Amino acid sequence: RTLRIGLIPGDGIGKEVIPAGRRILEALPASLKLKFEFVDLKAGFETFEQTGVALPDKTVETLKNECDGALFGAVSSPSKAVKGYSSPIVALRKRLDLYANVRPVKSVMTATNPIDMVIVRENTEDLYVKEERTYAAEDGSKIAEAIKRISEKASFRIATMAGEIALRRQKIRDSGAASIHQSPMVTITHKSNVLSQTDGLFRSTAREALANPRFASVGVEEQIVDSMVYKLFRQPETYDVIVAPNLYGDILSDGAAALVGSLGLVPSANVGEGFAIGEPCHGSAPDIMGKNIANPIATLRSVALMLEFLNEETAAAKIYAAVDGNLEEGKLLSPDLGGKATTTEVVEDILRRL
Amino acid sequence: RTLRIGLIPGDGIGKEVIPAGRRILEALPASLKLKFEFVDLKAGFETFEQTGVALPDKTVETLKNECDGALFGAVSSPSKAVKGYSSPIVALRKRLDLYANVRPVKSVMTATNPIDMVIVRENTEDLYVKEERTYAAEDGSKIAEAIKRISEKASFRIATMAGEIALRRQKIRDSGAASIHQSPMVTITHKSNVLSQTDGLFRSTAREALANPRFASVGVEEQIVDSMVYKLFRQPETYDVIVAPNLYGDILSDGAAALVGSLGLVPSANVGEGFAIGEPCHGSAPDIMGKNIANPIATLRSVALMLEFLNEETAAAKIYAAVDGNLEEGKLLSPDLGGKATTTEVVEDILRRL
Ligand SMILES: CC(C)[C@H](C(=O)O)[C@@H](O)C(=O)O
Ligand SMILES: CC(C)[C@H](C(=O)O)[C@@H](O)C(=O)O
């Protein structure tokens, strides 16, 4: 099988980690019978400055018509509002209907307090519809409003995805993988005590989706988002799969990343029907760009995650194992993990373990 | 001076901790020349079940016309949407225009990694305006929308309050109090990379408010909310004052509470012009209600915080010191802190130290 992968490095350290993602795909063992072709694509703030467009149509069209998957690096947010600029990754998620943002947060099993959870974030609506307006109050001062939109459809499919992921994780456990969890569990996060209609709809629809007999073995519980953040830090080991509307998912996944020591370890995949974009959870980190010290692990794991959603689970497992090998040995670590290794050294150590 | 204080226990353990708040006010040394009168007031889910109204007008009117301040316990959120019920504390904040929710999160100075921050949360708008509607999509499925409203006025006054609090904290440090901070700093939290108009307005208005020469000595920085949660856990000791729109403030304060070991330690005050309601950050905790094991410290500190905003700083300082004494000794702690003491024992230990 030949997979055609779009490469969108974006800004800052995106340009250093996406090439690492390409290298690991090229280094996969021949026995897997997987071939890769790559297409370089543009998006980001630099692209905006050069062309006036942050997400060129050509990038979207090429992904849609020619690619099986993609890797996205990171984009810089301008430090002041810039007219006409808006985040290309948010636009890309919507234009390709990549309705789920899947973010596994996992420590190595040898950690003192191992954790192993996946945050399944709705990726197309909520406040991310970006419908805003500004008007003047009677006294001339400004008021701005934004729409938070929650639909039954999007809530249903994201909760279903969370249920499927919970089942898949249980299957891997049943096949003998070491794990801290006994049985599958989905935690629905919302703030329906304040937002009874929007988050109330998310909550009741998620319950309905997870009541499908297909998920009979999956436990279902709920946490109000503020309390969820509290518990995430007090008892992170109890969480298996967390499903949340877009914005809470964004916040929770950064919070969970803090638990494993660095955003530089946490991958994500933007997933739609038959298409997935791997994307490290970290940003463009302008402070360390060009120094060859960015942690490539979030990207390498995002490559694996993308492969999982393209049904190449064996290849994915090889990458995860190679990364875990590097972390468990702990000799070649990037500075965010307290080490001194360069991006290149970490990548090469992981390639050796493939 | 005689202060008239409304007591609103609400539901669950609210009924156990608010009496503790009353006791500490009554136990303040006579040398302070402070007298207290108390008015018992109703609100909460139980009140709703009994009367059909969660926040009786009488409670609001009595607070407005007869009281100098109040203590609010906690309210239970029904486990399913209940027609006509909506959170009385959210309504109370708006009806009394208690525009700031001030939440100090502080470990004892003898902690291994001491932290000492205040979250200053806007308390009247954002998604808490609760303007929601539900409609049918073309295919008949449901869509719900909520308004997130951010005004220049509310953003300006909350940022000004944050600046004032930063100055006040510095003054206390200047007078020789031990502290982990050298100089005052306000961190503005927002998500303007997605919500350029609403959170953009919060951001630019907060910047403007803090550019007042009055705050010349106050450092100002910004954090995007997801990154803020990450940093809150990675380097909490660096934060002095955090200012945030309503919902982010809600989430951040629970997150910060996790850092000091228990929500049972974290106080808050809902503050308006000349009025303040002390309110523990924890909920009604139905699982432990009636057992006399709720941690009263969040409430006792909320009493002190209320007194600070009523300009009774000496009385407040006495309560803080008595609470710190109890925690530093660590002999009589409630179960949430790993101890075995009852609510009554903790309260009595603290009263002894007054
Ligand atoms: C850059 C930003 C628009 C984005 C988001 O909010 O989704 C980022 O925080 C993420 O989590 O991928
Ligand atoms: C109970 C709930 C409505 C409330 C809020 O969201 O403000 C609570 O979480 C708080 O922080 O005081």
UniProtKB/TrEMBL annotation, chains A, B:
Pathway: Amino-acid biosynthesis; L-lysine biosynthesis via AAA pathway; L-alpha-aminoadipate from 2-oxoglutarate: step 4/5
Family as reported in the entry's similarity comment: Belongs to the isocitrate and isopropylmalate dehydrogenases family.
One function term, GO molecular function aspect: NAD binding
GO biological process: isocitrate metabolic process; lysine biosynthetic process; tricarboxylic acid cycle
Keywords in alphabetical order: Amino-acid biosynthesis, Lysine biosynthesis, Magnesium, Metal-binding, NAD, Oxidoreductase, Phosphoprotein
Catalytic activity: (2R,3S)-homoisocitrate + NAD(+) = 2-oxoadipate + CO2 + NADH
Entries under SUPFAM superfamilies matching the protein: Isocitrate/Isopropylmalate dehydrogenase-like
PANTHER family in UniProt: DECARBOXYLATING DEHYDROGENASES-ISOCITRATE, ISOPROPYLMALATE, TARTRATE, HOMOISOCITRATE DEHYDROGENASE, MITOCHONDRIAL
Organism for this UniProt entry: Hyphodiscus hymeniophilus
SMART domains xref list: Iso_dh (SM01329)
Protein's name in the database: homoisocitrate dehydrogenase
EC number: 1.1.1.87
GO cellular component terms, A-Z: mitochondrion
